[in-house]
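Hi all, long-time lurker, first post. I run a small reading group and we've been trying to get comfortable going from sequence to structure in the token notation. Rather than ask abstract questions, I figured I'd post a concrete chain and ask someone more experienced to write out its structure so we can walk through it together at our next meeting. Sequence below, copied exactly:
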Amino acid sequence: MVTREQIEGLMETVRNLYLADSIPWVIGYSGGKDSTATLQLVWLALRELPQEQLKKTVHIINTDTLVESPVVAMWAQQSLRRMEEAAEVQHLPFAPHRLTPDYNNTFWVNLIGRGYPFPRKKFRWCTDRLKIQPVNKFIKEKLAEHGEIIMVLGTRKAESANRAKTMAYYEKKRVRELLSPNPTLVNELVFSPLAEWTDDDVWIYLMQYKNPWGYSNQELLTLYKGATPDNECPMMVEKDLPSCGRSRFGCWVCTMVEKDKSMEAMISNDDEKAWMTPLLEFRNEFGDETQDRERRSFRKMGGFLQGSYGQLHHGPYKKEIREEWLGRLLEIQADINANGPEEFADLELITMPELRAIRRIWVNEKHEFDDSLPRIYEKKLGKPFHDPEWFVSGTFGHDEWETLKQVCADLNPEEELNFEMMYSLIDVENRANSLNQRKGILDSLEDCITHTFYENETDALNYYLERLERKRSLGGKYDEKFFAHVKGEGEEFDQEANEEDAALIGDENE
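-- Answer (accepted) --
Happy to help. Here is the structure in token form:
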């Protein structure tokens, strides 16, 4: 158990390290117990220094993925505002920053806009885009400005065996006392003041020391208790008792875990949080592994075919699925705004910049010139979609789309991709309305045809098989497992194949 003497000694270490050089500090703050304890420790330590010694800035960064649990996101945002006010009043060098992912690379823009399969073990596309990139961008800016930075993190060895092993490994590589190198960014040193603390040490410290920016650590404890299945938060009674320190807050859309136990516990333990139930249900709906394959095109993002285990890899989500999910998301948002707690009356589950980015992807990249997003938005929210920078490049819209769809259905209802081929060809031609824009148009038209000439998935699979047979007969490399499964010699299409199916989406940006 951490003692008051140890805490005071650690704060003295923080002060000495702060005064040792002119390198600015960056503290990672998530709103959770570890980052709160770390920031509080630094804050209380520096508050004891005379004003003339507080010369270098301590940046506080919070990364909002835009899909954080609404309760935790609001907690963190309000904390940042309190920190800014308190730092000014107390004349301390803390500068809070809220970091967000690029609006064109958010969770919803990738899932609903581009049609990425939901994140899973072999296709975890979310973490880098939503968390790592915003932080790295901020840090690189500070490195360019100052040459070096010291990153202060609330990581602890007691969190997991892997975390302890990693921290011990980089401790051996230290070039300065207490400062470990960052494995990915040069000139960034990492200081982890709570490295040896347990969960109980963190809670004891938070309960014994008053939060210096005016937030309630008791409310933070209550938040953790509410996210624990049994609504208990035992400490120091028996070492095998579950600690609420094991609760995990994160993205409410996260499909990297089978169940969102923290949100389930919040809803179960507190009737006032029942308004989050639709979020949980929606997450379980789009994260349903058993239904996912049929919701996606049998072609990759670029329109080509790829397969293994005797089947084609399925790629992005189909148009009707993407539109259905957008409508569902907006419905939930409207219901929370109208019937949820007053503090969430302006909650945006999906932001306007994200909606505009999705619109451009659907119309400009996917050739879906019916431009359905504004209609979905107006239907679900009851107000017009505002997009002042939108430029209509063609003359076709929803009416022409519906006419073409009916004509294609009348001609041959069995041709699954006939309509897509037609609207893609028409959109490509329609956009090339000047000589300057017609460069490469024949290649674009050819691409549309080569990506959509299959009658259905069976026809595409046979075509893919014929190509592999030809490659094999000419002595080229081919997938032996694919043929084994086609001939019934392989194992059934299993979880591994499904993971690979998603991982090989075939996005040119991957």
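A couple of things your group might point at:
The chain has two domains: 4-218, 289-450.
The CA atoms of residues 112 and 325 lie 7 Å apart.
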